[in-house]
Amino acid sequence: MTAQTGTGPTAHDQGVARLLESYRAIPPEGTVRLAKKTSNLFRRRERNPYPGLDTSGLSGVISVDPVARTADVAGMCTYEDLVDATLPHGLAPLVVPQLKTITLGGAVTGLGIESTSFRNGLPHESVLEIDILTGSGEIITATPTNEYADLFYGFPNSYGTLGYSVRLWIELEPVKPFVELRHVRFTDLRTLMSTMTRIVDEKTYDGVPVDYLDGVVFTADESYLVLGRQTDDETVPLSDYTGKHIYYRSIQHAPSSTPKTDRLTIHDYLWRWDTDWFWCSRAFGTQNPTVRRFWPRRWLRSSFYWKLIALDHRYNIGDRLNARKGLPPSERVVQDIEVPIEKTVDFVEWFLANVPIEPLWLCPLRLRDPAPGTPADAARPWPLYPLEPHRTYVNVGFWSAVPVTPGEPGYTNRLIEKQVAALDGHKSLYSESFYSPEEFAALYGDEQYRKLKSTYDPKSRLLDLYSKAVKSQ
To answer: In terms of pTM, does the model score above 0.90?
Structure first.
């Protein structure tokens, strides 16, 4: 294995020791939480009067094995740091979520997705082994086959309510230096979705391999699939969307029988959405050419926009500005949902007719095929986010705000939740949720969750999932 400078096993062991020491410092009646300065969650949280867990020593890449194509990674390592460690070996994680500061542990205990998910599933499916600090204060190593296999499979979508990842051993895949893109325009959503279905099944389009697949809906009659193909051809000029040029705007083009093409380095492709946080940077004015010209390049990244969002949450800046203009306060509608691919057009058409938000992001996914010899009763192994094997789903992402409906808190979010459930879908729990306890239990594996909770957090040192995801405690 190749250890990364300054983050070898000794440093990791010291970080684990500090983590355990901080756990023991929390009084028995105190709720155990992480002491994090940053977050990619959009839920408000009650302030914790007790000190948090010290994860400062758990942010590095422990080692990369380029021969076995694996990496040993501390739980709080960001994907930005992980990619920086693996790309020099011509390797990348099987799924790299879109934002640089998402941590590997966060993408596993929550959920992550990206344009490789149609062939590689979700981030937790490439985990081979995971060390978890449980609610009872012990660190256990869970694998798909050892005595902690129930926690291994139950950990995804538990959001830190069953424990926190300390170390993860993951698979990597080979990547080439560049990604060639084709932006295929559609004027009809059903044609787009039938094309997406064929690409997911065949991994090709017009006879050319497709390694990366996602899409954007601007309007009902303007949508795109973005098809990425790895290449090592150095002769074609490259685009750069880390400065004045905006990636999502580069996708659009006039109707034509020939898709628009583009090329990026693999590094820039993986982070193509981070510079403008998809299209959310427009809320801060940074897509105005005059503003962008003077906006420091180091601030063109999602982590800085997050700081602005945190200030807005704290001081209600947006609502105050709306009030000065005579406008109502806003309801945040920041969500990612998954519905089966055959029902995606129904959802998108409903959304465009009822929610004044655009664009929408589309990202297909399928669970990875079970390994040979997997028992039949383990064919659907992720109980807290139960997707069916061999079935294609589409993640639809939308991140903005709408005017509040007086007297009905969360009105638009509740409408969306009902529509998603009616279409046999789920929503990610990183943002605000409004489910009743009964609805939540039916969607997110309540019976299995309760068994895991009683086993690995018997004294309820950690919040339970409903309290954390819906009550926002």
So the answer is: yes
The CATH 3.30.465.10 domain(s) of the chain lie at 2-174
> Using CA of residue 105, residue 110, residue 116, residue 121, what is the dihedral sign?
positive
Nearest alpha-carbon partner for 405 in 396, 395, 397, 414 = 414
Distances (CA, A) of 267 to 81, 240, 317, 470: 12, 11, 35, 36
Total Cβ atoms within 10 A of residue 278? 21
**Neighbour-count burial of 260, counting CB atoms closer than 10 A to its CB (0-12 exposed, 13-18 middle, 19+ buried):** middle
Alpha carbons 334 and 356: distance in angstroms, whole number: 13
CB burial of 289-324 (b: ≥16 within 10 Å; e: otherwise) equals eeebeebeeeebbbbbbbeebeebeeeeebbeebee
Q: pLDDT 10s per residue in the chain (473 long)? A: 444 444 555 799 999 999 999 999 999 888 888 876 666 565 566 666 677 899 999 999 999 999 999 999 999 999 999 999 999 999 999 999 999 999 999 999 998 999 999 999 999 999 999 999 999 999 999 999 999 999 999 999 999 999 999 999 999 999 999 999 999 999 999 999 999 999 999 999 999 999 999 999 999 999 999 999 999 999 999 999 999 999 999 999 988 878 999 999 999 999 999 999 999 999 899 999 999 999 999 999 999 988 888 777 777 776 676 777 777 888 999 999 999 999 999 999 999 999 999 999 999 999 998 766 555 555 457 999 999 999 999 999 999 999 999 899 899 999 999 999 999 999 999 888 999 999 999 999 999 999 999 999 999 999 999 998 997 65
Q: Which fold has domain 2-174?
A: 3.30.465
